[in-house]
Amino acid sequence: MKFEKLLKENPFTLVVSLPNNKLDLAKAALDAGADAVKVHINVLHAASGNLFGDFEHNRKFLTDLVALAGERPVGLVTGGADNHLKEAELPLLEDLGVDFFSCYSEHLPAFMLKTKKLTRMVALHNTYDEILPAVKGSEIDVVEASIMKTTEYGKPLRYFDVLQYRKICQAVKQPVLIPTQKAILPEEVFALKDAGCKAVMIGANVMRDQSADACYEATLAFRKAVDALK
After folding, report:
1. Whole-structure pTM over 0.85, yes or no?
2. In this predicted model, what pLDDT tens digit does every residue of 163-185 receive, in sequence order?
3. Does the structure show a pLDDT above 80 at 44?
4. Separation CA 88–CA 91 (nearest Å)
5. Contact 73, 97 (CB under 8 A)
6. At what angle do helices 23-31 and 55-69 cross, to 10 degrees?
């Protein structure tokens, strides 16, 4: 199922952002019940501390990952402030079967909006107030509310955070996904759903380490919490 359709039709969706580009991590997440998985290229990832290489370096991994995931969507962070997927690489990425891309709005090249195959998930930074009014009518398909400053990474979820998420959900028409920049607990996902969010994306901040076992345990805990939502 297409990622955008999944978010719109599911009561609540569980996405796993892998802390490293390894198939054993992907298998662990999928075996534990992830609805979709997301990986990275061209970035130094703040939460995991890992440096991810370019598209060509990760091309075989992405091909293998899409095959492993089957019907479940695979997403890709296509770049950051310094490096990004090249325009000539976009058709190659589309042909691999990757379903959606993710990138901060201030790092996203305009050519990425040309895609006819990929779901556009665009991340809003902590400066989201500046552009939030424009998001509703934009080409964005899914809003990733990555609005926490790096100084807040790994800290407990507070109600003020939930209110910010609610504000975004009320301002846009697109489904809103919340990444675990904060150390969100499985038993706290109800607050995200009640705020109007459509998905949680768990990553390194809620895994005890970057092993396949830790990925499986965290995914399973959130899977049970998501399934228990009413």
Report:
1. yes
2. 999 999 999 999 999 999 999 99
3. no
4. 7
5. no
6. 30
Instruction: Report the number of distinct structural domains present in the chain.
Output: 1
Q: How far is CA 55 from CA 71, 122, 197, 216, in A?
A: 22, 19, 31, 26
CATH of the domain at 206: 3.20.20.70
DSSP string, 7-73: HHHSSSEEEEE-SSS-HHHHHHHHHTT-SEEEEE-S-B-TTT--B---HHHHHHHHHHHHHHHTTS-
114 is in which domain, residue-wise? 3-227
Highest mean pLDDT among 46-50, 82-86, 216-220: 216-220
Is the distance from CB of 113 to CB of 94 less than 8 angstroms? no
Least confidently predicted of 38-52, 120-134, 193-207: 38-52
The DSSP code sequence of 166-180 is HHHHHH-SS-EEEET
Amino acid at 178: I
102: CB partners within 8 A, 6+ apart: 38, 75, 76, 77, 78, 121, 122, 123, 144
Res 230 pLDDT > 80: no
Distance CA 202, CA 65 (A): 18
